[in-house]
Protein backbone atom coordinates (compact mmCIF):
# COMPACT_ATOMS: atom_id res chain seq x y z
CA UNK A 1 0.00 0.00 0.00
CA UNK A 2 1.35 3.41 -0.98
CA UNK A 3 1.21 6.32 1.42
CA UNK A 4 1.67 9.85 0.24
CA UNK A 5 2.08 13.18 1.95
CA UNK A 6 -1.30 14.79 1.55
CA UNK A 7 -3.03 17.91 2.70
CA UNK A 8 -5.03 17.07 5.81
CA UNK A 9 -8.79 16.68 5.42
CA UNK A 10 -9.22 19.45 7.98
CA UNK A 11 -6.47 21.94 7.12
CA UNK A 12 -8.10 24.60 9.27
CA UNK A 13 -9.07 22.44 12.24
CA UNK A 14 -5.80 22.57 14.02
CA UNK A 15 -5.40 26.23 13.32
CA UNK A 16 -8.63 27.25 15.02
CA UNK A 17 -9.77 26.86 18.54
CA UNK A 18 -12.69 24.82 19.80
CA UNK A 19 -14.35 25.18 23.16
CA UNK A 20 -12.03 22.51 24.47
CA UNK A 21 -8.74 24.13 23.65
CA UNK A 22 -6.72 26.94 22.20
CA UNK A 23 -5.33 26.83 18.68
CA UNK A 24 -1.71 25.70 18.45
CA UNK A 25 -0.79 26.71 14.93
CA UNK A 26 -0.13 24.33 12.09
CA UNK A 27 2.42 21.54 12.26
CA UNK A 28 5.09 20.95 9.67
CA UNK A 29 6.88 17.63 9.45
CA UNK A 30 10.19 16.90 7.80
CA UNK A 31 10.70 13.86 5.62
CA UNK A 32 12.34 12.09 8.53
CA UNK A 33 9.10 12.35 10.50
CA UNK A 34 10.38 15.00 12.89
CA UNK A 35 8.02 17.88 13.53
CA UNK A 36 8.89 21.50 13.21
CA UNK A 37 6.92 23.98 15.24
CA UNK A 38 4.92 21.27 17.03
CA UNK A 39 3.64 22.52 20.35
CA UNK A 40 4.76 19.68 22.60
CA UNK A 41 5.47 20.19 26.26
CA UNK A 42 9.16 20.16 27.13
CA UNK A 43 8.59 17.05 29.27
CA UNK A 44 7.43 15.05 26.26
CA UNK A 45 9.55 12.01 25.30
CA UNK A 46 9.14 13.17 21.72
CA UNK A 47 11.49 16.05 22.55
CA UNK A 48 14.73 14.21 22.00
CA UNK A 49 17.75 14.21 19.75
CA UNK A 50 16.45 11.17 17.94
CA UNK A 51 13.13 12.82 17.21
CA UNK A 52 14.69 15.94 15.75
CA UNK A 53 13.01 18.26 18.25
CA UNK A 54 14.64 20.14 21.05
CA UNK A 55 13.05 21.92 23.96
CA UNK A 56 13.63 25.65 24.13
CA UNK A 57 13.88 27.77 27.21
CA UNK A 58 12.21 31.14 27.36
CA UNK A 59 13.79 34.01 29.28
CA UNK A 60 11.65 37.07 29.98
CA UNK A 61 13.45 40.32 30.61
CA UNK A 62 12.49 43.92 31.08
CA UNK A 63 9.26 43.25 32.99
CA UNK A 64 7.66 46.59 33.75
CA UNK A 65 6.06 47.29 37.10
CA UNK A 66 4.26 50.34 35.80
CA UNK A 67 0.59 50.20 36.79
CA UNK A 68 -0.56 51.66 33.49
CA UNK A 69 1.15 48.84 31.61
CA UNK A 70 -0.48 46.35 33.94
CA UNK A 71 -3.93 47.85 33.30
CA UNK A 72 -3.27 47.78 29.58
CA UNK A 73 -2.44 44.08 29.70
CA UNK A 74 -5.51 43.33 31.79
CA UNK A 75 -7.69 45.22 29.34
CA UNK A 76 -6.14 43.35 26.44
CA UNK A 77 -6.86 40.01 28.13
CA UNK A 78 -10.45 41.02 28.78
CA UNK A 79 -10.90 41.99 25.14
CA UNK A 80 -9.42 38.69 24.01
CA UNK A 81 -11.73 36.78 26.35
CA UNK A 82 -14.76 38.68 25.09
CA UNK A 83 -13.80 38.03 21.48
CA UNK A 84 -13.35 34.34 22.27
CA UNK A 85 -16.81 34.18 23.83
CA UNK A 86 -18.31 35.89 20.78
CA UNK A 87 -16.61 33.39 18.48
CA UNK A 88 -17.88 30.55 20.63
CA UNK A 89 -21.46 31.82 20.45
CA UNK A 90 -21.19 32.21 16.70
CA UNK A 91 -20.01 28.59 16.36
CA UNK A 92 -22.95 27.46 18.49
CA UNK A 93 -25.37 29.36 16.26
CA UNK A 94 -23.78 27.98 13.09
CA UNK A 95 -24.05 24.43 14.39
CA UNK A 96 -27.66 24.84 15.48
CA UNK A 97 -28.49 26.21 12.05
CA UNK A 98 -26.80 23.27 10.33
CA UNK A 99 -28.41 20.72 12.63
CA UNK A 100 -31.84 22.09 11.77
CA UNK A 101 -31.28 22.27 8.00
CA UNK A 102 -28.85 19.50 6.95
CA UNK A 103 -30.41 16.03 6.51
CA UNK A 104 -28.59 13.62 8.83
CA UNK A 105 -28.27 10.97 6.11
CA UNK A 106 -26.13 13.34 4.03
CA UNK A 107 -24.26 15.09 6.86
CA UNK A 108 -21.01 13.16 6.34
CA UNK A 109 -20.88 14.37 2.75
CA UNK A 110 -21.76 17.97 3.54
CA UNK A 111 -18.99 20.51 2.99
CA UNK A 112 -20.40 22.94 5.55
CA UNK A 113 -20.42 20.24 8.21
CA UNK A 114 -16.83 19.37 7.34
CA UNK A 115 -15.81 23.02 7.57
CA UNK A 116 -17.46 23.55 10.95
CA UNK A 117 -15.92 20.34 12.33
CA UNK A 118 -12.57 21.79 11.40
CA UNK A 119 -13.33 24.98 13.30
CA UNK A 120 -14.38 23.13 16.46
CA UNK A 121 -17.43 21.80 18.25
CA UNK A 122 -18.71 23.61 21.35
CA UNK A 123 -19.42 21.24 24.24
CA UNK A 124 -22.95 22.67 24.52
CA UNK A 125 -23.94 21.17 21.15
CA UNK A 126 -21.49 18.29 20.87
CA UNK A 127 -23.90 15.42 21.40
CA UNK A 128 -26.30 16.99 18.88
CA UNK A 129 -23.46 17.15 16.36
CA UNK A 130 -22.57 13.51 17.04
CA UNK A 131 -26.21 12.55 16.60
CA UNK A 132 -26.27 14.41 13.27
CA UNK A 133 -23.13 12.95 11.73
CA UNK A 134 -23.94 9.39 12.89
CA UNK A 135 -27.55 9.72 11.67
CA UNK A 136 -28.51 8.32 15.06
CA UNK A 137 -32.15 9.40 14.95
CA UNK A 138 -32.78 7.19 11.92
CA UNK A 139 -31.90 4.18 14.09
CA UNK A 140 -34.26 5.17 16.87
CA UNK A 141 -37.64 3.50 17.28
CA UNK A 142 -40.04 4.85 19.89
CA UNK A 143 -40.30 2.64 22.98
CA UNK A 144 -37.56 0.21 21.95
CA UNK A 145 -34.90 1.44 24.35
CA UNK A 146 -37.08 1.10 27.45
CA UNK A 147 -38.17 -2.39 26.44
CA UNK A 148 -34.65 -3.56 25.68
CA UNK A 149 -33.26 -2.30 28.98
CA UNK A 150 -35.94 -4.24 30.89
CA UNK A 151 -35.17 -7.62 29.33
CA UNK A 152 -33.62 -10.42 31.36
CA UNK A 153 -30.13 -9.44 32.46
CA UNK A 154 -27.39 -10.49 30.10
CA UNK A 155 -24.80 -13.05 31.20
CA UNK A 156 -22.10 -10.37 31.44
CA UNK A 157 -24.09 -8.16 33.82
CA UNK A 158 -21.82 -8.82 36.82
CA UNK A 159 -18.75 -7.92 34.74
CA UNK A 160 -20.51 -4.79 33.56
CA UNK A 161 -21.28 -3.73 37.14
CA UNK A 162 -17.66 -4.23 38.12
CA UNK A 163 -16.35 -2.24 35.16
CA UNK A 164 -18.82 0.61 35.66
CA UNK A 165 -17.64 1.09 39.26
CA UNK A 166 -13.99 0.77 38.28
CA UNK A 167 -14.05 2.99 35.19
CA UNK A 168 -16.45 5.71 36.33
CA UNK A 169 -15.87 5.88 40.06
CA UNK A 170 -15.90 9.67 39.94
CA UNK A 171 -19.38 9.71 38.38
CA UNK A 172 -21.87 8.37 40.98
CA UNK A 173 -24.88 8.78 38.69
CA UNK A 174 -23.42 6.24 36.26
CA UNK A 175 -22.72 3.60 38.92
CA UNK A 176 -26.22 2.70 40.08
CA UNK A 177 -27.54 -0.77 39.23
CA UNK A 178 -30.54 1.02 37.76
CA UNK A 179 -28.39 3.79 36.31
CA UNK A 180 -28.12 4.91 32.68
CA UNK A 181 -24.82 3.18 31.87
CA UNK A 182 -25.89 -0.32 32.89
CA UNK A 183 -29.27 0.29 31.27
CA UNK A 184 -27.60 1.27 28.00
CA UNK A 185 -25.23 -1.70 27.98
CA UNK A 186 -28.03 -4.10 28.92
CA UNK A 187 -30.22 -2.76 26.12
CA UNK A 188 -27.47 -2.95 23.50
CA UNK A 189 -26.25 -6.45 24.36
CA UNK A 190 -29.78 -7.86 24.34
CA UNK A 191 -30.40 -6.20 20.98
CA UNK A 192 -27.14 -7.41 19.40
CA UNK A 193 -26.52 -10.96 20.65
CA UNK A 194 -23.39 -11.62 18.58
CA UNK A 195 -21.42 -8.89 20.38
CA UNK A 196 -19.21 -10.12 23.19
CA UNK A 197 -18.94 -7.87 26.20
CA UNK A 198 -15.61 -6.24 27.00
CA UNK A 199 -14.60 -3.26 29.13
CA UNK A 200 -14.26 -1.14 26.01
CA UNK A 201 -18.04 -1.10 25.60
CA UNK A 202 -18.42 0.37 29.09
CA UNK A 203 -15.81 3.04 28.38
CA UNK A 204 -17.36 4.11 25.06
CA UNK A 205 -20.93 4.05 26.34
CA UNK A 206 -20.00 5.84 29.56
CA UNK A 207 -18.14 8.59 27.74
CA UNK A 208 -21.15 9.10 25.45
CA UNK A 209 -23.43 9.40 28.49
CA UNK A 210 -21.23 12.12 29.94
CA UNK A 211 -22.35 14.36 27.08
CA UNK A 212 -25.77 13.10 25.95
CA UNK A 213 -29.13 12.25 27.55
CA UNK A 214 -29.62 8.53 28.08
CA UNK A 215 -31.76 7.56 25.11
CA UNK A 216 -29.90 9.90 22.73
CA UNK A 217 -26.65 8.36 23.96
CA UNK A 218 -28.01 4.88 23.25
CA UNK A 219 -28.80 5.57 19.60
CA UNK A 220 -25.49 7.41 19.08
CA UNK A 221 -23.78 4.36 20.57
CA UNK A 222 -25.76 2.00 18.31
CA UNK A 223 -24.76 4.09 15.27
CA UNK A 224 -21.07 4.13 16.21
CA UNK A 225 -21.05 0.40 16.72
CA UNK A 226 -22.89 -0.32 13.46
CA UNK A 227 -20.74 1.96 11.33
CA UNK A 228 -17.27 0.83 12.41
CA UNK A 229 -16.79 -0.75 15.82
CA UNK A 230 -19.05 -3.78 16.08
CA UNK A 231 -16.71 -6.30 14.41
CA UNK A 232 -14.05 -5.53 17.04
CA UNK A 233 -16.33 -7.17 19.63
CA UNK A 234 -17.26 -10.29 17.69
CA UNK A 235 -15.57 -13.61 18.44
CA UNK A 236 -15.40 -14.64 14.78
CA UNK A 237 -14.32 -11.39 13.13
CA UNK A 238 -10.82 -10.53 11.93
CA UNK A 239 -11.47 -6.79 11.62
CA UNK A 240 -8.95 -5.93 14.33
CA UNK A 241 -6.21 -7.80 12.49
CA UNK A 242 -7.06 -5.99 9.24
CA UNK A 243 -7.02 -2.54 10.83
CA UNK A 244 -3.88 -3.32 12.85
CA UNK A 245 -2.13 -4.33 9.63
CA UNK A 246 -3.12 -1.00 8.07
CA UNK A 247 -1.76 0.77 11.15
CA UNK A 248 1.57 -1.06 10.97
CA UNK A 249 1.97 -0.07 7.31
CA UNK A 250 1.29 3.54 8.21
CA UNK A 251 3.86 3.36 11.00
CA UNK A 252 6.47 1.92 8.66
CA UNK A 253 5.81 4.73 6.18
CA UNK A 254 6.13 7.47 8.82
CA UNK A 255 8.82 6.40 11.30
CA UNK A 256 11.30 3.75 10.21
CA UNK A 257 13.24 3.84 13.48
CA UNK A 258 10.26 3.30 15.78
CA UNK A 259 8.73 0.82 13.37
CA UNK A 260 11.91 -1.29 13.40
CA UNK A 261 12.20 -1.14 17.18
CA UNK A 262 8.57 -2.08 17.84
CA UNK A 263 7.64 -4.40 14.98
CA UNK A 264 10.98 -6.05 14.14
CA UNK A 265 13.35 -5.92 17.11
CA UNK A 266 10.67 -6.49 19.75
CA UNK A 267 8.30 -8.37 17.47
CA UNK A 268 5.20 -6.71 18.93
CA UNK A 269 1.98 -7.75 17.21
CA UNK A 270 0.34 -4.57 15.81
CA UNK A 271 -3.02 -5.80 17.11
CA UNK A 272 -1.63 -5.67 20.66
CA UNK A 273 -1.02 -1.95 20.18
CA UNK A 274 -4.31 -1.19 18.45
CA UNK A 275 -6.71 -3.26 20.53
CA UNK A 276 -6.64 -1.01 23.65
CA UNK A 277 -7.14 2.05 21.42
CA UNK A 278 -9.69 0.93 18.87
CA UNK A 279 -11.97 -1.00 21.27
CA UNK A 280 -12.23 2.03 23.58
CA UNK A 281 -12.00 4.85 21.02
CA UNK A 282 -9.08 6.07 23.15
CA UNK A 283 -11.17 6.53 26.31
CA UNK A 284 -8.73 5.97 29.17
CA UNK A 285 -5.72 6.47 26.91
CA UNK A 286 -6.25 10.20 26.30
CA UNK A 287 -7.69 12.96 28.51
CA UNK A 288 -11.44 13.43 28.10
CA UNK A 289 -11.20 16.69 26.16
CA UNK A 290 -8.81 15.05 23.70
CA UNK A 291 -11.16 12.08 23.32
CA UNK A 292 -14.02 14.45 22.48
CA UNK A 293 -12.00 16.04 19.68
CA UNK A 294 -10.93 12.64 18.35
CA UNK A 295 -14.57 11.53 18.27
CA UNK A 296 -15.66 14.71 16.47
CA UNK A 297 -13.46 13.75 13.54
CA UNK A 298 -13.69 9.95 13.81
CA UNK A 299 -17.47 10.00 13.53
CA UNK A 300 -17.11 11.99 10.31
CA UNK A 301 -14.03 10.41 8.73
CA UNK A 302 -14.07 6.87 10.12
CA UNK A 303 -11.20 4.42 10.65
CA UNK A 304 -8.40 6.56 9.11
CA UNK A 305 -8.72 8.83 12.16
CA UNK A 306 -8.01 5.88 14.46
CA UNK A 307 -4.81 5.20 12.55
CA UNK A 308 -3.75 8.83 12.61
CA UNK A 309 -4.40 9.16 16.36
CA UNK A 310 -2.46 5.96 17.01
CA UNK A 311 0.50 7.41 15.11
CA UNK A 312 0.24 10.63 17.12
CA UNK A 313 0.38 8.69 20.41
CA UNK A 314 3.42 6.78 19.20
CA UNK A 315 5.10 10.02 18.25
CA UNK A 316 4.42 11.52 21.68
CA UNK A 317 5.89 8.40 23.34
CA UNK A 318 8.77 8.16 20.86
CA UNK A 319 11.74 8.63 23.16
CA UNK A 320 10.27 6.37 25.85
CA UNK A 321 9.68 3.67 23.25
CA UNK A 322 13.19 3.87 21.83
CA UNK A 323 14.62 3.60 25.36
CA UNK A 324 12.28 0.78 26.41
CA UNK A 325 13.73 -2.68 27.03
CA UNK A 326 10.53 -4.75 27.11
CA UNK A 327 7.30 -5.22 25.18
CA UNK A 328 5.29 -4.67 28.36
CA UNK A 329 6.86 -1.24 28.84
CA UNK A 330 6.09 -0.17 25.28
CA UNK A 331 2.48 -1.33 25.48
CA UNK A 332 2.07 0.41 28.84
CA UNK A 333 3.33 3.73 27.43
CA UNK A 334 1.01 3.45 24.42
CA UNK A 335 -2.06 2.49 26.41
CA UNK A 336 -1.70 5.36 28.89
CA UNK A 337 0.74 8.03 27.70
CA UNK A 338 1.53 10.63 30.32
CA UNK A 339 -0.57 13.78 29.76
CA UNK A 340 2.61 15.89 29.87
CA UNK A 341 3.88 13.96 26.84
CA UNK A 342 0.99 15.19 24.70
CA UNK A 343 0.65 18.53 22.89
CA UNK A 344 -0.94 21.04 25.28
CA UNK A 345 -4.41 21.19 23.67
CA UNK A 346 -6.79 18.80 21.88
CA UNK A 347 -6.51 20.85 18.69
CA UNK A 348 -2.72 20.72 18.84
CA UNK A 349 -2.92 16.96 19.24
CA UNK A 350 -5.19 16.60 16.21
CA UNK A 351 -2.90 18.88 14.21
CA UNK A 352 -0.14 16.40 14.95
CA UNK A 353 -2.38 13.50 13.93
CA UNK A 354 -3.16 15.14 10.58
CA UNK A 355 0.51 15.84 9.89
CA UNK A 356 1.41 12.20 9.20
CA UNK A 357 1.87 10.77 5.74
CA UNK A 358 -1.38 8.85 5.48
CA UNK A 359 -3.73 8.95 2.53
CA UNK A 360 -7.18 8.44 4.04
CA UNK A 361 -8.88 7.31 0.83
CA UNK A 362 -6.13 4.74 0.30
CA UNK A 363 -6.69 3.40 3.81
CA UNK A 364 -10.40 2.97 3.09
CA UNK A 365 -9.76 1.19 -0.23
CA UNK A 366 -7.10 -1.08 1.22
CA UNK A 367 -9.37 -1.90 4.15
CA UNK A 368 -12.14 -3.08 1.82
CA UNK A 369 -9.65 -5.07 -0.24
CA UNK A 370 -8.13 -6.76 2.80
CA UNK A 371 -11.58 -7.52 4.26
CA UNK A 372 -12.53 -9.32 1.05
CA UNK A 373 -9.30 -11.30 1.09
CA UNK A 374 -9.83 -12.34 4.70
CA UNK A 375 -13.45 -13.28 4.04
CA UNK A 376 -12.48 -15.38 1.03
CA UNK A 377 -9.76 -17.12 3.02
CA UNK A 378 -12.15 -17.80 5.90
CA UNK A 379 -14.79 -19.24 3.56
CA UNK A 380 -12.23 -21.59 2.07
CA UNK A 381 -11.54 -22.83 5.60
CA UNK A 382 -15.22 -23.19 6.44
CA UNK A 383 -15.23 -20.26 8.92
CA UNK A 384 -18.31 -18.04 9.09
CA UNK A 385 -17.55 -14.38 9.75
CA UNK A 386 -20.11 -11.98 11.19
CA UNK A 387 -21.20 -9.25 8.79
CA UNK A 388 -21.03 -5.69 10.05
CA UNK A 389 -24.43 -4.62 11.38
CA UNK A 390 -26.13 -8.04 11.30
CA UNK A 391 -28.00 -9.94 13.98
CA UNK A 392 -30.23 -7.32 15.66
CA UNK A 393 -32.93 -8.58 18.02
CA UNK A 394 -35.78 -6.10 18.59
CA UNK A 395 -38.89 -6.54 20.77
CA UNK A 396 -41.65 -8.37 18.87
CA UNK A 397 -44.29 -5.73 19.53
CA UNK A 398 -42.29 -2.92 17.92
TrEMBL record:
UniProt-annotated stretches for the region Disordered: 1-92
SMART domains linked to this entry: TBC (SM00164)
A Pfam family matched in the record: RabGAP-TBC
Family annotation (InterPro entries): Rab-GAP-TBC_dom, Rab-GAP_TBC_sf, Rab_GAP_TBC_domain
GO molecular function, one term: small GTPase binding
Rab-GAP TBC domain segment(s): 120-302
Bias (Low complexity) ranges: 48-84
Compositionally biased intervals (Polar residues): 10-24
Domain of life: Eukaryota
Name listed for the protein in its UniProt record: Rab-GTPase-TBC domain-containing protein
Amino acid sequence: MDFELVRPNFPSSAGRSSEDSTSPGLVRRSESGAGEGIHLRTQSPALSISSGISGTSRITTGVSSDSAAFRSKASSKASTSEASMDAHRQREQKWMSLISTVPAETARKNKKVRKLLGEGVPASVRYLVWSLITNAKSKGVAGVYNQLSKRVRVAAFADMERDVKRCFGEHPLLQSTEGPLLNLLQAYLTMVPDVQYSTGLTLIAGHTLLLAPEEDAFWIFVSMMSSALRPYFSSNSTQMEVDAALFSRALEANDVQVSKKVLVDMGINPAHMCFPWFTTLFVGSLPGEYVNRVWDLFLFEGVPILIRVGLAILYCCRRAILEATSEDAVLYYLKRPQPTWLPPTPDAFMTLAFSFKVKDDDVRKQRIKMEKQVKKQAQSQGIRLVANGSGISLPRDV
